[in-house]
Amino acid sequence: MAPAWAATPEAPSSVSLVYWSAGDCGPCRAWSQSERKQEFLSEAKASGVTLVEVQRPRLADPLSRYTWPKEQEGLMQSYLAHQYAPAQLTPAFDFVCRGELLLRIDGLHEWDSFWKSSLRRSVKQCKAQSPG
User: Fold this and answer.
1) pLDDT for 46-83, tens place per residue?
2) Which end of the chain is more exposed for a tag (fewer CB within 10 A), N or C?
3) What is the domain-level CATH number for residue 93?
4) Domain count, the chain
5) Is 107 helix (H, G, I), strand (E, B) or coil?
6) What is the tally of helices (H) and strands (E) in the chain?
7) For residue 10, is pLDDT > 70?
8) pLDDT tens for each residue of 13-33
9) Does 6 reside within a domain?
10) Is the N-terminal amide bond of 57 cis, ω within 30° of 0?
11) What is the C-alpha to C-alpha distance for residues 124 and 127, in angstroms, rounded to an integer?
12) pLDDT score, position 52
């Protein structure tokens, strides 16, 4: 039986940030309700980054219980095709360029360091490599 996150392919967007979380993850809730998330969403919108929130109900649930948004099935298929593993720890953030996982960030401390110092540069590099 295929994992809960297996579905039919669609083309992934050029630049995505996959946010791995769990319903009972305290740091995940803190990030989701924080100004940091709102700041990121403003920056992401301006930079053309799609935030994809992937969640499993509880930290203790198997990784196959992660659920992907239906509109992100293409990106999910890219994960399956490349055999990228779902994040085991939450929160985690994956920087994805044209369906290819370039970087996984574990935890909020690493996230703060990445997005404030490297996100814009990473997005520019990804878009420069994009065809068309």
Assistant:
1) 888 888 999 999 988 888 888 888 888 888 888 888 88
2) C
3) 3.40.30.10
4) 1
5) helix
6) 5, 4
7) no
8) 588 899 999 999 999 999 889
9) no
10) no
11) 5
12) 92
Q: 8 lies in a domain? A: no
Mean pLDDT score of the chain, rounded to an integer? Answer: 81
- How many angstroms separate the CA atoms of 53 and 23, rounded? 12
Give, in degrees to the nearest 5, the angle at Cα 17 between 82 and 125: 85
> Using an 8 Å Cβ cutoff, are 49 and 15 in contact?
yes
Q: Which two structure tokens, joined as six digits, stand for 132?
A: 């068309």
Report residue 112 as tokens.
């703060």
Picking from 73, 93, 103, the residue whose alpha carbon sits closest to that of residue 28 is 93
User: In this model, does residue 2 exceed pLDDT 80?
Assistant: no
Angle ∠(1,4,94) on CA atoms, nearest 5: 125
Domain with 80 in it: 15-129
